[in-house]
Amino acid sequence: MKDRAIAFDFDGTLVHSGFDKGVHIMYAVYAACAATRFRRFLHPHDPRGDLERLLRGLLQHTGAPRFQQLAALLNSLIHDRPVVVEAPHGLEVDPDLAAEYDCVRRTYDVTYTALNDAAARKYWKAYPAALEIVPRLAVDFDLFIASGVPQDMLEDDLARHGYDRRLFQGIWGADRQGGADKAELLGRIKARGYRDVLFVGDASRDLEYARTAGVKLFRIKDPEDFHSLAALVQRGFPNRAEPWTWTETDKRFFRSKTRRLVEALLAGRPLSPTEAVDAIHEERRACR
Ligand SMILES: [Mg+2]
Q: In angstroms, what CA-CA distances link 182 with 199, 209, 215, 259?
């Protein structure tokens, strides 16, 4: 065991995918409501208000395990409270709806997974800088993955993007029940007794996870940050202490892309996963 450890988030950190996933989550929640009696909370004649509420839930929970995100976005949609609750009872809905929550959860999970699979096949790539720097860091530090991606998908995703699993002492994701968030995973790494632990992430929420676990944070904003990281860690771990917020351009991207998918659904012509990810990527620069 080396005396310092670096843990990496996966989506948006080692693989360029974070913004797409935000649209996938918002749409998957909307589509799951539309397919069940949770549709009573939607306003299909004008979905803008619903999308704003879903967006508020998303912005506070990017990087969280997917079922925590579902609970937070539903809570935001139904009550304008963008916080995670124990679903379904924390959503305070009628008993008949609570009984249907399993169906909402399943539909959301299937929709979200299908969109992610389509995007991963066609668009998501590992950052070349990360593929180059991570093996170099493994020489001096113990490396871990601490991700919100479900554990069973995480190892496949890692291999698919060309990362050698032998570089990591632990590859840990969320469990299927939505537990084991990154704070818990980072706490597990810290408990091994390292002199210093650094979490490398992309979402503002990653900073909260790092703080909760009592470890440092380095933010990946663009690929060049991996080169900065490699230089900085040799002198001692950096620590980003200030939270950052989403820009209006970021919000416009989530809003406009999700609306495109929702409008097709409301028109009775829902896009296939491949069509949906193509729609998210067309004129990407113009939207972002
Ligand atoms: Mg991330």
A: 10, 6, 11, 30
In the reported structure, the alpha carbon of residue 32 is separated from the centroid of ligand 1 by a whole-number distance in angstroms of 23
In the reported structure, the alpha carbon of residue 219 is separated from the centroid of ligand 1 by a whole-number distance in angstroms of 10
Tokens, residue 17: 């995918």
Give this prediction's pTM.
0.88
Task: Give me the architecture of the 4-16+125-232 domain, per CATH.
Answer: 3-Layer(aba) Sandwich (3.40)
Q: Which residues have CB less than 5 Å away from ligand 1 (the ion)?
A: 9, 11-12, 63, 202-203
Residue 67 sits at the vertex; the CA angle it makes with 26 and 92, to the nearest 5 degrees, is 90
Q: Tens of pLDDT along 13-47?
A: 999 886 899 999 999 999 999 999 999 999 999 99
Residue type, 46: D
Domain ranges, ordered by start, for the chain: 4-16+125-232, 18-123+248-287
